[in-house]
Amino acid sequence: MEPAVKSGFIAVAGRPNVGKSTLVNALAGRKVAIVSDKPQTTRRRIFGVANGDDFQLVLADLPGFQRPLDALTERMQHTVDTAFEDVDGVLFVLSARERIGAGDKFIAKKVYSLGVPVVIALNKVDRLKAGHIAQQMQTAAQLGEFHAIHPVSAKTGDGIGQLRDELVALLSEGPLYFPRGQATDMSDADQIAELIREKALWLTKDEVPHAISVELEELGEKYIRAFLLVETESQKQILVGKSGAMIKQIGTRARPEIEALLDRQVFLELTVKVRPRWRRDTTQLERLGL
Ligand SMILES: Nc1nc2c(ncn2[C@@H]2O[C@H](COP(=O)(O)OP(=O)(O)OP(=O)(O)O)[C@@H](O)[C@H]2O)c(=O)[nH]1
Ligand SMILES: [Mg+2]
Q1: Cβ burial 90-125 (10 Å sphere, 16+ → b, else e)
Q2: What pairs with residue 204 in β-bridges?
Q3: Is the pLDDT of residue 121 over 80?
Q4: Are 49 and 57 in contact (CB under 8 A)?
Q5: By three-state DSSP, how is residue 289 classified?
Q6: Closest-lying ligand to the alpha carbon of 121?
Q7: Is the model's pLDDT at 7 over the cut of 80?
Q8: Contact (Cβ atoms closer than 8 angstroms) between residue 22 and residue 35
Q9: Overall pTM > 0.70
Q10: Ligand 1 center to residue 18 CA distance, Å?
Q11: Which residue in 188, 184, 151 sits closest to 166, CA to CA?
Q12: I need a labelling partner for 144 at 20 to 30 A (CA). Which of 2, 174, 182, 245 fits?
């Protein structure tokens, strides 16, 4: 018989770009969620699983809280709102590098009203002066009745072990929700599409990153074909690049990670396509799993 484990779900909340996905990856000990320097990288809920000998901590990585602008961001915010049902706690992520302000207060109002313990991760403390960190800790503490507060760096791994222990302590005895060794609920196809999108996000700027979506067309033993969807012809030109340089660069960066995920060599074929207004079109969004 399997020995008893402590298990449960923790929702990860915070403003866009504070490092929620980086933190989920650090806690899970594996890259499950894509990360970029652009806000609104995460578009739907992703489970990242941290497995220990006697625990299974399931983290729900979420889009950042935001004011909806179109059908896509509306659905992203809906995902966030519904993700708070039936969790054992909330990991409220703040960036120590930014002013803790109105956006964080708005989120605090929501998470402190759920009736579950709220653990604050004050992230991005790497290379910050101790005095500044202490000040930010104080401001963070004033946001509500927190259960615990941890200064961490998801990037360097500083404080991650203690934070994991803190979250595991919130769980009670329960079943294994995922087989041991499985770190996410995402299919290979979804992870591949996300990895391609991640590389495209890092290489583009302004409005372009927000207009990109990736659709996997073929996932074969050898060949992987994917479409990068954008909304306009000019975005397409940017993504293709001069003589195809940009799309080639995206492929070159994505392929090694895809090969590591699948544990085999593949040919990756990427095509950029214009799909006008896909962010406003619910049929398109559903097709893209958003
Ligand atoms: N210096 C530093 N940068 C970090 C740290 N954690 C995350 N970042 C950076 O912050 C940026 C955003 O990281 P993400 O993990 O994508 O942030 P997110 O909160 O998931 O963002 P959304 O999904 O857009 O809401 C990236 O450039 C990360 O490399 C950290 O501990 N220290
Ligand atoms: Mg994210």
Answers
A1: bbbbbbbbeebeebbeebbeebbeeebbbbbbbbbb
A2: none
A3: yes
A4: yes
A5: coil
A6: 1
A7: yes
A8: yes
A9: yes
A10: 5
A11: 151
A12: 174
Q: Is 17 in the pocket of ligand 1 (CB under 6 A)?
A: yes
- Structure tokens that stand for 234 in this block: 């000019």
Atom of ligand 1 nearest to the CA of 43: 23
Rg (C-alpha) for the chain, rounded Å, is 19
Residue 244 is classified by DSSP as: G
Cβ(91)–Cβ(13) below 8 Å: yes
Contact assessment for residue 75 and residue 290, using Cβ atoms and an 8 Å cutoff:
yes
Burial tier of 184 (Cβ tally within 10 Å: 0-12, 13-18, 19+): buried
Find the helix packing angle between 20-28 and 160-168, rounded to 10°.
Answer: 80
DSSP code for 2: P
Q: Which two tokens stand for residue 218?
A: 């073929």
User: What integer pLDDT is reported at residue 1 of this predicted model?
Assistant: 57
CB of 37 sitting under 6 A from ligand 1: yes
Q: Answer for the pair 212, 201: CB distance below 8 angstroms, yes or no.
A: yes
> φ, ψ for residue 58 (rounded to 5)?
-105, 115
Please answer whether residues 215 and 266 qualify as being in contact, where contact means their C-beta atoms are separated by less than 8 angstroms: no
How does strand 223-230 pair with strand 55-61? unpaired
| C-alpha to C-alpha distance for 144 and 114, rounded to whole angstroms | 12
Tell me which residue has its CA closest to atom 12 in ligand 1.
17
Residue 53: both structure tokens together: 């000998």
Task: Specify the amino acid at residue 169.
Answer: A
Which residues are 143's β-sheet partners?
none
